[in-house]
Amino acid sequence: MAVIKAQPLTADAFAPFGDVLQAVGKPDKIINNGFCGRYHDRARLDFDPDGRAGISVFKAEPRALPYTLDMLERHPDGAQAFIPMSLDAYLVTVAEDENGRPVNIRAFIAGPGQGINYHRNTWHGVLTPLSAPGLFAVVDRIGETPNLEEHHLKTPLTITQ
What we know:
- The chain is mainly beta and 161 residues long.
- The chain has one helix spanning 11-14, and strands at 3-5, 7-8, 18-21, 29-31, 36-38, 52-59, 67-74, 80-84, 90-98, 101-110, 115-118, 123-124, 128-129, 135-142, 149-160.
- The chain has 1 helix and 15 strands; from the N terminus they run ββαβββββββββββββ.
- Strands 2, 9, 10, 12 and 13 form a 5-stranded mixed beta sheet that branches. A 5-stranded antiparallel beta sheet has the order 3-11-8-14-6, with no helix packed on it.
């Protein structure tokens, strides 16, 4: 089984796949009488015209490293953002697309205070918290048509830290 070493999540490394959501550096705006910094418009929320943005809450069972990755998915009709509701690390896996199949799989460890937004049609692994409670706010496309494509790997991969 091939092994992938997960790297720390950075905006530059993740840029081909989506956006890292975090409050780092100087805020774009100071609001609320100077008591709040706004980090403005940090994700590209892209949805087909037949859907709308919705907010859901996911509660996922924690996993452990090493982790066996055997399936990736993507959402052709809209972006999908995961915003942790606790300050716990989680595993993020992504892949490039080649003729409708995931290739060049990469893995990241998202740290406390980091959310992610997968761009539309980005291959990614399932929600993989590394500790409880595994609670996330999820912003994604809500609509009548399916917005999910799955790809099961012929040979699973092991992800380590």
